[in-house]
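Milestone M4 deliverable, item 7.
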Amino acid sequence: MDQNSQPITPQMIGKDMRYLQLLSGSFSTIASASTEIINLEAINNLPKGTEHFISDLHGEYEAFIHVLKNASGNIKRKVNEIFGLTMRENEKHELCTLIYYPEEKLNIIKQKEENLDDWYMITLHQLVTVCQNVSSKYTRSKVRKSLPEDYSYIIQELLHESSAEPNKQEYFNQIIKTIIDIGRADDFIVALCNVIQRLSIDQLHIVGDIWDRGPGAHIIMETLRHYHHFDVQWGNHDINWIGAAAGNLACIANVLRISFRYGNMATLEDGYGINLLPLATFAMETYKDDPCERFQPIVAEPAHFDTKSTRLLAQMHKAITIIQFKLEAAIIDRRPDFEMESRKLLEFIDLDRGVFHYNDKDYEMWDTNFPTINQEHPYDLTESEKDIMERLKHSFCTSDKLQKHVKCLFTNGCMYNVCNGNLLFHASIPLNEDGTFKDVKIRDHYFHGKALMNEVGRQTRCAFNSEISKEERQYARDYIWYLWCGKNSPLFDKDKMATFESYFLKDKSMSKEEKGYYYTYRDNEKVCDAILDEFGVIGEHRHIVNGHVPVKAATKGESPIKAHGKLIVIDGGFAKAYHEKTGIAGYTLVYHSRGLQLVQHEPFTSTKDAIEKGTDIVSTTQLVELSAHRVMVKDTDLGRELQRQIDDLKKLLYAYRNGFIKEKENKHN
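Output delivered:
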């Protein structure tokens, strides 16, 4: 019995009799219950699996997928530990690249390798050794579930037999020789490499912002849909796409504006099949004589865009931006409780004088061409704009892949997660000036802290809930837009989103955005402890893990570790658009049985270079926290759940042995 468990008494059995009767349906004999207890106790005494935390991927699918394949550099470290000086550096690079990209690397090797059978024999032995190492912290049952069906039995034999054993050496070698002789070496290598990748990351945490800027958010989401174990904490860019998928016109306009701003047509057209032709036709006609200088796309590789396509992007960018301001004004008028009246700014444009007149002051504008704005009714959509938005709404709402991806976010995520002593959320918890929790009004009720995050998650799901009233769904869809840019949104938490000012006003002071008090207090250990307490996070070593705000590590020497290690910011700038600002290309926080490590990544060149030249992401590891003892499964959330199951099974044994419940005969005996 666990040292914290109470002695079992007849009174306890009587109290839990209904549950124990149900449990006896799964474990019908003393023997089966005993076997399960032994199994669970054994699992609890294995080292914990490795968790990886990544945030702010922003569509950079090549870098993200490479980080998954190399397990944030962990596979390279394993290869170095295993083979040390027995392999040359270039041989270890080749082996790592093979593990990351087995199909592609095999094609290259087969073209240049003279003695292929010899290479197969050596490589298969090496891969089996690596696979044995990465699988050593898991039960045979868990490893078996990770294996491809076609090769499960053979891989199990190789993993659990040692070629160093004299009596097994010939058996071991003969298996590999036969694999080569019957022409199955390529398939077997691919299978082994995929198993190594899978077992190197036990659980993946995505701390928000999968979409926008980079070209492959849809590829990232499709990868996650088929990933073995992950969760997502929604970011502000994710919520914007969720709103677009729900049919919120303002969110759709925001999604399009950002996509055009960063020249990202791939996600819209190739990823989700969004029909942009009506908008393109409208933009070319409406802004045919407009240089749209403030709307030129920001692209990492300008060579991919010719003059004509760049021009069209700028026109579409301006067209949807003006439409966005009109659509947002409609929500602001519909929801006075959002208190966003100050964000209706089109009415302050003096079209006759070409200035922005605000608070009795004239502001000079970069752009004064507004052919679709009516001075008397500046927020009215033209008939063409209405038609375009209805067509776009239909595209977003009927995109099968986008709807599947949003469903994936709902199934595998929400606003926050508590896992093994870590509280994960993307951006902030709204706070007052004194660092206490801020009460935020949603409809007729006030929420703060954990309750606020729960209500935000509920409202987001309500936007897709056909079982509630139409009015409730409409409010929820409007609220998703508020989450994108509202002052008290835990996903935004700034005084304003100065989109209009940034595009049109020359006075830079007008586009300044003031962050909420969370960002003032996130380096305060006492406030961090209060937040951790609010969410029920326990343990001697507990942390808040955030993304959202890029850490300027290389450019300004900013540390991602705040509040004496209580809070860790892991937005290092995966998106190429941020590389110049941060000086790096992302972080991965790795939590394994020895402690916490922060892995800082340099920019990734390309998958092509990784395969052909063996280039890898250059990563630097920083030790955040070293555990005094190796963390075992029993020390984790899973371990605590397994202990509860063990305690229940022990009660069932007591019930069997003392006649409260009768054993059921095994009909198969």
